[in-house]
Amino acid sequence: MERYKLLRELGDGSCGHVYKARDMRTYEIVAVKRLKRKFCFWEEYTNLREVKALRKMNHPNIIKLKEVVKENNELFFIFEYMDGNLYQLIKEREKPFSEEVIRCFMSQVLHGLSHMHKKGFFHRDLKPENLLVTNDVLKIADFGLAREVSSMPPYTQYVSTRWYRAPEVLLQSPCYTPAVDMWAVGAILAELFTLTPLFPGESEIDQLYKVYSILGMPDSTAFTIGANNSRLLDLVGHEVVPPMKLSDIIPNASLEAIDLITQLLSWDPSRRPDADQSLQHPFFQVDAWVPCPLSDPLELKLSSKRAKPNLELKLQDFGPDPDDCFLGLTLAVKPSVSNLDVVQNVSQGVGENVLFCTDFNDNSDQSVFWTLLNPDQNGVHNSAETSLSLSFGSASANWSSTISRIFFSAFAA
């Protein structure tokens, strides 16, 4: 471990301590997880579920295990570093996330889960603390309780933090499926809207009662084989509680979000959509126009052949009013010399150099070619030839009067 310099502790879990560290060879920041358990033999490490799971998965929304180091019977996992987790973001929020942000986070969770389930594993401990976030990138972490789908039951009863634990686990079912992960997704989705847990039970019995209080009593077909149904029946007795409206509990969620949460939080695990089906839900089918990023004009790279990047503006169907033909344009370029007049402060409030073409003729179908320049006290910079082409057509005939209203401001790069 001499290669890694521990900087500070990030957390202390049931399985080990997590530190922020620096790789002294590459100076990369990493996360180091030191397991509390001692390992006398290397074979013990290779049989760890977390190692088995992470070795088989490679996905942008699943934390990457970079290296495993064994030293003095201690085991260290070296992970890629993430700035924080979803729990911290929720805790720090003063107002709810926008639905667009929630959609972004949950889409990444579901893509990671889809990959995980297809690789034959389910997480069993999904909660906001185990969803690491850097900027807008989310990665699923902490696979200490991960289990292979093909593994034989009975499974461990104590899985997942209580608030995100599926009913079949609370009812002590010996066999359950990746649907337990989908229940946790529904609980996390609801929490992102309200910033508070949906089922904050203080014990397993209280947890089961909180689920029952919101979702109502399930029918008998909802219980999985081997579940301790009497545990719920003894809890509720003969009292019949109708399900609450999730839209009343989560008033800031859209109807699509409420519908998805309702499906994910089904008593019957077979009725919960899987990760791929959830991604096809209308909640994620939003037709949002994303504009293409505009390139920074200061980053224009002219080739040695002195390329001439041109900007062509076509002005058509303007009205007879001179004000209908008004255009202001700012370009940050280093232009070359041109046969242009330079006018200072041509319009009130405009303090840049304004360039005009002086040989424009009145014509109903006319193309005008300008070469932009930025004069200084000693002359004109001519390191590049950057041109602006304007084509006019089908406009009013009185162009000679309206062209004076078109001005261009140029800055030196």
TrEMBL record:
Domain of life: Eukaryota
Keywords: ATP-binding, Kinase, Nucleotide-binding, Transferase
Pfam families in the record: Pkinase
Gene: LOC113849104
Name used for this protein in its record: Serine/threonine-protein kinase MHK isoform X3
Cited Gene3D superfamilies: Phosphorylase Kinase, domain 1, Transferase(Phosphotransferase) domain 1
The UniProt record lists the keyword Glycosyltransferase: no
GO molecular function: ATP binding; protein kinase activity
Protein kinase domain ranges (all copies): 4-284
